[in-house]
Amino acid sequence: AGSALGHSEFTASARKEADGLWGRFLLAGGIPSTVAPNGTATWYPQIAYGIGPIVEGYLALAEVTGQRRYAVFAGLAAGWFLGNNPAGVSMYDEKTGRTFDGIDGPSPVKVNRNSGAESTIEALLAIQKATSNPDAAEYLHYRPVGNQSPLLANVPERREYTGPGGSRLVLRRGPAGVEIARDDQSVGDNEVAARDAAAGSDKPSTPITLTYWPAANPVETSVANRLAAKWNQEHPDVQVRVQPLPAGRSSEEVLLAAIVAKATPDVSSNVSSALLARLVRAGGVVRLDNRVATSARLRERTNAAMLASLRLPDGGIYAFPWKTNPMMLMYNVDLFKAAGIGPPRTQSELVQAWHKLARDTDGDGRLDHWAMWATLKTTWYERFYDFYPLYLASSGGRTLVNNGKIVFDNEAAVAALDV
Predict the structure, then answer these.
(1) For residue 288, how far is the Cα from the chain centroid?
(2) How many CB atoms are closer than 10 A to CB 266?
């Protein structure tokens, strides 16, 4: 906000909190169980959406100030999701995308293994942002050396962290906050660069890593993992990291939150076409048909008629269909037989059958038995399973949107609702 609005005092305030309170967390060896100025130790639950803002705040400061240390600190803070916490448990499951709600305590320290939408979204966004920043990603698996210091009075002046392969990172309290006193990653990179330069060779380039959010169900997540593993084996220069969403979560709501947080994945394969235009307006989706390679492939494999239905009002194509979800109806054979109705073969026969099945059983003049059961859930996509298929059948395939306007008031909509 300080950078976007031109208010340097906002940035100064953010740095004060990051260099003060958050810096003490890092020197303490993790988020302690106390925030009292007098040093009194008081336990409070640690939750995913208490960690996410710290990670995003550090990364925002790294971008605004250009100081690498803030990105490093973001990686250390994001480690909470991967086991750098009082329970020593990875709160985020890389295989399923599930994120536990938090850590309770103090005796015993235990994980709250519920998994709410807020926890899941916060973890996905924080990890996505951290892994997208090379400096932060290097330190996700670093762990503090020594015991945590829960009392403010006992927070040390220095704290060492160790990473994979024994790499060391030493933080110390400085005049302007926490500083990096030693960083084997940084030193190692410089030494390798110097050695390569002396030998007249180029340092191997770091592979491109793409984050992929597949559909939020176990079967498609498993398929995505297998395909990504095969791709990664055959394409060492471009790697795909599958980051699944937990089953039962709406990937659309997570994507909207990711756009706001500027933590979108590179690829997602579970976006409803009904929501695509909204994602485009939010600035979170890249146009595909104006890219040379993609455009050439489209000309090879499709034609103008096939692509027409994919174009948004601006003429652009932002997503490609790769699967369909046919809606199927099950019917009660005994009820149909008792009413003298055979299996309907057309939409009009189906509507006629339903009108015969709807009846008033208590004689009060009002229908109390209906032909079709529909869920009472108000979630937006539930209507794709009841109202919308009936509407499309009644309207001859015409959608609810005509020339950019929603047209509910028509015979097809009445027919769909009347069953």
Answers:
(1) 21
(2) 15
Output the six-digit token pair for 158.
């220095």
3-state SS, 220-233, equals: HHHHHHHHHHHHHH
Residue 271 in contact with residue 257, Cβ under 8 Å? no
DSSP string, 33-100: S---TT-------EEHHHHHHHHHHHHHHHHHH--HHHHHHHHHHHGGGGT-STT---SB-TTT--B-
**Strands, sheet with 267-268, edge to edge from the N-terminal-most edge strand:** 238-242, 208-213, 267-268
Average pLDDT, consecutive stretches of 10 residues, N- to C-terminus, the chain (419 residues): 75 87 84 58 75 92 91 94 88 84 80 85 88 90 83 81 88 88 65 42 67 83 91 93 69 77 84 84 88 87 88 90 82 89 87 86 86 79 84 86 81 81
Dump the DSSP string for 266-331. SEES---HHHHHHHHHTT-----TTSHHHHHHHHHH--HHHHHTT--TTS----------------
**Whether the Cβ atoms of residue 176 and residue 156 lie closer than 8 Å to each other:** no
The answer to whether 243 and 124 have CB atoms below 8 angstroms apart is yes
Q: What is the rounded distance in angstroms from the CA atom of residue 153 to the CA atom of residue 216?
A: 46
* Structure tokens belonging to residue 148: 């945590």
Name, in order, each residue with C-beta under 8 angstroms of 120's C-beta and a sequence gap of 6 or more.
48, 97, 98, 99, 245, 246, 249, 254
Q: In the chain, where are the structural domains located?
A: 2-199, 208-285, 333-417
Residue type, 248: G
Fold of 208-285: D-Maltodextrin-Binding Protein; domain 2 (3.40.190)
Which of 123, 127, 122, 13 has its CA nearest to residue 61?
13
Token representation of residue 395: 């309207």
Q: Residue 183's closest CA among 193, 169, 164?
A: 169
What whole-number distance in Å separates Cα of residue 228 and Cα of residue 238? 11
Long-range contact set of residues 286-289: C-beta below 8 Å, sequence gap at least 24: 286/318, 287/316, 287/317, 287/318, 288/316, 288/317, 288/318, 288/319, 288/320, 289/316, 289/317
Residue 31 CA to chain centroid, in angstroms? 24
Q: Could you please report the per-residue DSSP string of 219-272?
A: HHHHHHHHHHHHHHHH-TTEEEEE-PPPTT--HHHHHHHHHHHT---SEES---
Q: Dihedral of the CA atoms 201, 202, 207, 208 (nearest 10)?
A: -170
- Give rounded-to-5 percent helix, strand, coil for the chain: 45, 10, 40
93-115 in b/e burial notation, b at 16+ Cβ within 10 A? eeeebbbbbbbbeeeebebbeeb
